[in-house]
Every structure is written in C-alpha cells, then in structure tokens.
Design brief:
801 residues; mainly beta; Maltoporin, Chain A; 22-stranded antiparallel beta barrel; five-stranded mixed sheet; 9 helices; 34 strands; 8% helix; globular
Length: 801
C-alpha cells in the first residue's frame, strides 16, 4: 500500500503524461503549432485542426528515456501503442512487433516520408502477441535519423491502401544542411528478483551501449544531405529461476531480452532543381545480429540429448542475422497547378537463421553442434504518383482535390538450411533436426511474387466557416486475391475557436501478406518407419486443402470515430472514441493431428487418412474467418506553464481504453466432429493479450541549463492464456504502474549530461505460480506489455553543434 501511495504521489506531483512526446519542436513559450502531413493532403493544417487524431512525437521526446529502441520510445509516447517483449519465441525475440489500438501488428501501416515501408520477412508463428502476422520492424530505423513521428489514430485504407485498419505511423526523416549531434548512452538492468523456485538475486545484466549521431551537410549549393548512424550492443537479460530437475540445482534456462548487436545508417537528401521542382531521396541500412535461447534440454532426455556430447544437458541458442535495406527517390513540384510528387521506393528484409550449442540426435556424436538453418527474404518496390490542387468553388474555403496512383511489386523467398539441420541421421528412435530450431527443408523453399495497382481520389474543404468535410475513395487490384474498394468520410465542426467536434466513417482492408500465403516450415516424423511431414503449410497446398483450407482473401473493416478538441490558452484536450469491426481476419490455425491407431471415423483417423497421400500427418495453416469488434477511447490532455523564475513545464495526461471481442471463429467442415481452427487460447490472445487500459502521466521541466522528465505509465491487466480449457493454467500479469525519471544538465560548451532510470521502482508483472508453470524456465508471461527485466539505470552524454 505504501508503494502504491508513493507511486501515485510522485507521478501526480511531477506530471501529467507524455508531455514532450506531444510537444511541438518550437522555441520555449512559442504558441506556433507544428503542421502535420499524415491523414490530410491539405497543406497548413496543425495537429489540433485535423479531422482525425494525429500524435506528433519529436526527436527530443524519443531520446528522453533509457531505451534507445525506436519502438520502445514510441510505445512510451502513445498510450494506444503496445510493444511487448516476448522471449523463447524464435525469431520474434529479435524482431518484436508493436500493436496500435489492440489490433494486429500488421494492421497498422508504416510510412517513411509518406511512402510505404516494407514489412519484415519474419512471420510470428509462436504464441506471442501478433501470432500469425508479418509486421514492419520499427527498430530497423535509428532514432537519430528521425525528425518527428506522426501517428494517425484512425482507419485510413481509403487514403493509403492496405494495412491502415488501425491507423498509420509516418516516420519523417531529419532534414538538415548544417549542424549535427552525437550521443553515447550506457545503461543496464539493476534489479532484484525473488523466484518461486529458489532464485533470490540482486542482478545486473542487459548492459546496453548505444552510440548515435547525425550530421547535416550542404550539397550543390542549396541542397542538403543528412547522415545518421547508430551502433547498439545489448547483452541478454535472464529471469529464469533455479532448475530443481538437475543436480546441483542451478539456472539452466535463459528467459529475457536477446543478445543484440546492430549497426544502422541513414542518408536523407534533397536538392532544388529550380523554383518549382525538388529532387529528394534517402537510403537506409541496418545489420542486426541477435541470439536468443530455446528450451533447456536435460542430460537425461534420451530423445534430444547425446550424453557424450552434452553430459550436463544443453541450452540451444537461435541466432538471427538480419539485413534491412530501404531506398527512395522522388521528385516533387507542380504540373498544371497541381502539387506533384512522384517517387519510387525499394525495401528488402533478409533473415538468416542459425542454431548454436545444439545437436541433431539422430546423427549421434558425429552431429555438428551448430547449424545454418536457412533464411527468409521479403522485398518490395513501390511506385507512387500523387497530385493535389486547391479550387475555389464558392465555399468558405478552397476545395482541395487530390488523386494518385500506387503500384507495388512484392517478392518472398524461403531458403533451405544445411542438410543436418533438418535431416534424419542413421540413429532411429530419437529426435532429429537441429534442436531448438529445425532448419527449413528443400520442400519448404519458395520463390513467389505478386503485384498490385491502386488509384484514389481525396477531397477536403471548408463548406462553411465552421464545417470542414473530407472524403476519399480508393480502388486496388491485386494479382493474387482480386480487387477491393474502400471509402472514407470525415467531418469537423468548429463551434468556437476553442471547441470542435470531429468524426469519421470508413471502410478498410488488409491484403494477405505473401508471408502468410506461402510460409512453410515442416519436419519429418516416422510412423511405422514411414516418413510423414508435420508443420505449417500454405493455404493453397494439397495438405491444407485436404483439411478444408482455401486461398486467402483480404481482411475488411468498418471504422467509426467520434471525438472533440478543446483548447483554451495553454490547455488543450482531445477525446476520440472509436469502433473497429474487422471481418475475415487472417490467423494461423490450430494444428490438426492425425493418428494411424485412432478408431475409424474419428477425427484423428480421418485426418490421418486425408493427409497420408501427401506424406503428412499433422498440419496448421493460415486461414480467414475470425471477426472482431473493438471499442475504445483515446484521451490526451496537455497544459504548458512558462514561468520566468520556475522555468517551463509541459504537463500531459494521455490514456487509452480498448476492448477487443472475437465475434466469430472458423470451424472445420471436413471432419466428423466439428473442431475449432481458432480455439480458446488463440481467441484470448486477441481479446486479453494487450492492456484494456493504459495511462501515461508525464511532466517535463526546463530552466536554463537544467531539465528533467518524470513519466508514470499505468498498464491494465493482461491475460496469458494457458492450454487447459477450464482456465486453470491461465496467468494474469496484474495492473502495474512504472515510473521513469531523468535529469539533464547542459554545460556551456553545449554538452548535455543525463542520468536516469526506467522503471525506477523495479516493478515486475505477476509471476506465474508453479502450478501453472511446472518448470523454472519462464517465470513471467511474454505478454507483459512492459517486459520483465526490472529497473534499467542509464547515463547519456550528448553534444550538438
């Protein structure tokens, strides 16, 4: 109780949330609003004048915390964004997806400089938030390259195309011809952990070093080139408990953040060609090496261990070697009075998997202990042409007419691993393939592509002095699943300069990703010496079709929004309610298992008979068929105080209430007994896997050379569903509040020194009790919205010139 009272008192006395996150990049005390470009194609509109809610997160706000990950900083700034930190989920440990308004990670469109960003090649196939999705990796872009981020919290498929069901995140790159900055951040987790299985430690781990910088250069007289780079090295954290199964009792597992080393580089350039036309472009690159742990293999496990190689057991380590490239080239100017922007953008994500400290038991002592397990590649090239012009048509203001076209080509590949990573060796009766992560087989290899073309028209204008209307319609045609048309209508009525209401109605869609359509990962099981495949199959494969799978089609949505804006003097308040109904969501099915010994006419025997001709015994696949309804509200309040003696205070409170309900799930139609393809555990991941409430309170203070930030984030309870139908294996993370503190001082030479702590009171989610977690390997749920690494203490030196 004392802790809770102190927590609330400290947070409330210091702040009201996300202040600098929503602050404009203006001089202290300035009332000038920053103009936004996301969600509107009308020039000169500020974030408080938009027809839909848009958050603006500045470069300074991204840096005022210990974590240097872009996704972590973004989640701290926008309450409707959640960025969990799962562990023991294969590649998802290193490439973690974020969610907006409780929707899927792939239901938020990510833009860079207003153009579509490519997704990662990784498909999240394990039991984490975002299971079944292939999302954009926000951490592939260094914070040093960002000028600001605009988050449109509204459905926008009619304006931007596929994926914008929950909203749009637009990353605006830094544009500078002069100046620069360099910062070095070092920190580590300094925490205490008392486990149910006997671990009682004061822990220091997760040491993280980040060096980042940027430099603006003048090129060709009046052009600019901004170079940004970042190096980050993060050591793993481990919150596994004592393993009572081994002698002597010791920690055998690793549960926490992965080891990550990454190097990122971005170049952003622009050059006026004449008084009308500008040439612009950018290039970005990141290389990331990560290592995460699988499940510990006991020395007595006769199926998975070779005692002569690992007499004390072993802990397999999954490595991911990721390269990410992006490039854009465009020209903007004017044609026949129309503002014109024509661009081509390319993006590629390549992931190579490896497994270390492991073995293929079927090869015995002759087996390698490290393997190349294959890889995934996704790339896209997008051509866009946008035109807009204002027309005087007798209304209170000009009518802005915008239209454009977008064409996209996508490619997806799976490459097989080395032979020993998937093959069965000469020893029978034991497991085979590299333990921890089985390599991709030759039959898993794919090389597919598709293309689509979309066209849109977007109108916006002031009908009267008080009423502003906008409407958009978009048509897209895909080479694989067909075409779709979406629309949006939005309105805003300003009763007074201080108060306005705004709302929107729209339809949306999300095209099935190539990763979802063609991802394949199988291994071979031997039943009565007959090889059978089991694993994940494309919906169009013979194996999936035998179980009733059909080619994937697009998800569709209906979005409704209604809210108001109030501002008076230094105070501003926005409240926006929303309803998002999504139909035919694409999900990963349950695994359907066949058995040759099952009784005739039962599901197990029918599955076996259906799949036997294809050499398979069990399968899961991507399917449409889940409908969800989401209802929520976003509230953002800000108050700014400028006092000559006390300094400048930015106080903000930002909260999100969000409720997701699954309305329909798919059921098999090819089996004697109807079986859900999206059962209880999967349904609860959708409904309870992200917080229903999240509130951020933040206060920023600045006076001359001094500055400080206090942030408190309250997370609602999250359910981690177990496998038992009665719910007895379920786990709740609990309601939690985390406080972050940072103090800064800028020396006369321009060097700023900062010290701080994220999660200063060392808060953890609720531990999983032994009856729900029979081993010590994972004492916390990976669904925790703030992770489970405890307090992070850091220092930073930053110099700007």
């Amino acid at each position: 109780m004392k802790y809770r009272v102190f927590l609330l008192a400290a947070a409330s006395a210091a702040s009201l949330a996300s202040g600098s996150a929503f602050a404009q990049t203006t001089e202290a005390g300035s009332d000038v609003e920053e103009l936004v470009v996301t969600g509107t194609r009308t020039e000169g509109r500020s974030r408080l004048e938009t027809l839909a809610p848009v958050d603006v997160i500045t470069a300074d706000a991204l840096q005022q915390r210990g974590s240097t990950e872009l996704a972590t900083a973004l989640a701290a700034s926008v309450p409707s964004i959640t960025f969990p930190r799962p562990s023991n989920t294969d590649g998802t440990d290193a490439i973690r997806p974020a969610t907006l308004r409780g929707q899927g990670p792939d239901q938020t469109l990510v833009l860079v400089n207003g153009t579509r960003r490519h997704a990662t090649a990784l498909v999240n196939t394990n039991g984490s938030v975002g299971r079944g999705s292939a999302a954009v990796d926000l951490n592939a872009i260094p914070s040093a390259a960002i000028d600001r981020i605009e988050v449109l919290r509204d459905g926008a498929s009619a304006q931007y195309g596929s994926d914008a069901i929950a909203g749009v995140i637009n990353l605006r790159l830094r544009e500078a011809a002069t100046g620069g900055g360099l910062s070095v951040t070092y920190g580590s987790n300094v925490t205490s952990f008392d486990g149910f299985y006997g671990r009682d430690d004061n822990i220091t781990d997760g040491a993280t070093t980040t060096v980042s910088g940027w430099q603006g250069l003048t090129i060709l007289g009046d052009g600019f080139l901004t170079l940004s780079g970042e190096y980050r090295n993060r050591e793993n954290t481990n919150r596994s408990d004592i393993d009572k199964r081994v002698t002597p009792n010791r920690i055998t597992s690793r549960f926490g953040d992965a080891d990550v080393e990454e190097l990122s580089f971005y170049a952003n350039a622009g050059k006026p060609l004449n008084d009308t036309w500008d040439l612009y472009g950018w290039y970005g690159y990141q290389h990331r090496d990560a290592s995460s742990a699988a499940t510990f293999r006991l020395p007595t496990d006769t199926q998975q261990n070779v005692p002569s190689v690992y007499p004390n057991g072993y802990l397999p380590l999954l490595t991911t070697d990721t390269e990410d490239n992006s490039a854009g080239l465009g020209i903007r100017g004017e044609i026949a009075g129309f503002r014109t922007d024509i661009n081509v953008v390319y993006g590629k994500n390549d992931i190579d998997f490896g497994v270390q400290n492991t073995i293929n038991p079927s090869f015995g002592a002759a087996s390698p202990t490290s393997f190349q397990a294959g890889g995934l590649t996704y790339d896209q090239i997008v051509f866009g042409a946008d035109f807009s012009r204002e027309f005087e048509v007798g209304m209170a203001g000009p009518l802005n007419v915008a239209f454009g076209v977008e064409a996209r080509q996508e490619t997806y590949k799976i490459n097989q691993g080395q032979y020993e990573s998937y093959a069965r060796g000469p020893i029978t009766g034991v497991a085979f393939g590299s333990r921890g992560f089985t390599g991709f087989t030759p039959s898993n290899e794919v090389d597919v592509d598709r293309n689509n073309v979309g066209v849109y028209i977007d109108l916006e204008g002031k009908v009267t002095e008080q009423l502003t209307l906008s409407g958009a319609i978009r048509y897209e045609d895909y080479s694989d699943f067909g075409d779709t048309t979406t629309g949006k209508f939005a309105a805003r009525y300003d009763f007074t300069p201080e108060f306005a209401i705004r709302g929107a109605v729209s339809t949306g869609f999300r095209a099935p990703a190539l990763q979802q359509q063609y991802y394949t990962s199988t291994s071979i099981l031997y039943i009565d010496n007959v090889p059978f495949e089991t694993g994940t199959y494309p919906a169009t494969s013979n194996v999936a079709a035998a179980l009733g799978a059909k080619p994937l089609k697009a998800e569709t949505s209906d979005n409704y929004a209604l809210g108001f804006v109030f501002r008076r003097g230094a105070f501003e308040l926005t409240v926006d309610g929303y309803k998002i109904d999504v139909k035919d969501r694409i999900v990963l099915s349950e695994t359907l298992q066949g058995s040759p010994t099952a009784a005739p006419g039962t599901n197990g025997r029918v599955i076996y008979d259906l799949l036997a001709p294809y050499g398979s015994n069990a399968a899961r696949f991507f399917i449409n068929g889940v409908d969800t309804d989401t209802v929520g509200v976003d509230v953002v309040a800000r108050y700014r105080i400028v006092d000559d003696q006390a300094g400048i205070f930015d106080l903000t409170a930002a909260g999100n209430i969000n409720d997701v309900e699954v309305k329909r799930t798919p059921v098999t139609t090819t089996l004697p007994t109807p079986t859900s393809l999206f059962a209880r555990q999967a349904r609860l991941r959708f409904e309870e896997g992200t917080p229903k409430q999240k509130l951020t309170l933040q206060g920023d203070w600045k006076k001359e050379a001094w500055g400080a930030t206090v942030r408190t984030t309250f997370y609602g309870d999250v359910l981690s569903p177990g496998t038992l139908a009665d719910g007895s294996a379920d786990n709740n993370t609990g309601n939690r509040g985390l406080v972050d503190l940072e103090a800064r001082y800028t020396f006369p030479v321009g060097l700023t020194a900062s010290v701080g702590a994220d999660n200063v009171f060392d808060v953890y989610p609720r531990q999983i009790i032994p009856s729900q977690n029979t081993t010590s390997a994972s004492p916390f749920s990976s669904f925790s919205p703030f992770g489970f690494s405890g307090r992070f203490v850091y220092g930073r030196l930053a110099y700007n010139w």
